[in-house]
């Protein structure tokens, strides 16, 4: 192992020297500990169904179902210890997305572009995959909690986010989703089998938009 490290140094050292000589390393990028207020407002309101780039090369725009899925990830966490790595990963990546220094490091000490946001998207996709089936297989408390969390998200976006950053489509899709979920859940146990099908239709509808 030590010999391998020494041999790799033959390649690493010239590469580092070349990087330092390009003029792109160490450029002035401004504040590295926090973004502007508009960035965080965009980040929250565009978590579901963003129209495009927020700022700093960040593309979110997840399905509206990502909001209840993230809420379910933290509901009664002690009952699902196997989800702890996913909770830690989501919190860590969210904090990293909110600190310019992370983007600066991942951009090769060049600028604060969050081009690594695909990793965050993969994390959210995993959360949706693992958590939404709980709505079908567990009791109504999960549905109530996910609905309450989604309502809180809608209210935060409506009352605390500037109108130019607010996306009504997110609220509409969230409300439609939980009206359908509630109907499927309370009609009969057979109706609950339709929940995942509804999730698929809503996700495809979001992608189509």
Outline the fold blueprint:
Layout: H1 2-20, H2 37-45, H3 66-73, H4 84-97, H5 100-106, H6 117-131, H7 134-137, H8 140-160, H9 168-187, H10 195-208
Helix pairs in contact: 3-6, 3-8, 4-6, 8-9, 9-10
Explained architecture:
The longest helix is centred in the last third of the chain and has 21 residues, at 140-160. Helix 3 (66-73) packs across helix 6, helix 3 packs across helix 8 and helix 9 (168-187) runs antiparallel to helix 10. The chain has one domain (2-208). The protein starts with a helix and ends with a helix. It is an all-alpha fold and 209 residues long. Helices cover 63% and strands 0% of the residues. The model has no long low-confidence stretch (mean pLDDT 76). It contains ten helices and no strands.
Largest sheet: none
Tell me roughly what share of residues is in helical segments: 55-70%
Q: Could you tell me how far the N terminus lies from the C terminus, measured between alpha carbons in angstroms? A: 52 Å
Reading the helices and strands in chain order gives HHHHHHHHHH
> How many strand units?
0
Mean pLDDT, to the nearest integer, reads: 76
- Count of DSSP H/I helices: 10
Poorly predicted regions: none
What share of the residues does DSSP label as strand, in percent?
under 5%
Q: How many domain modules?
A: 1
**Rg estimate, integer Å:** 21 Å
Judged by helices, strands and strand pairing, the structural class is mainly alpha
Structural shape: globular
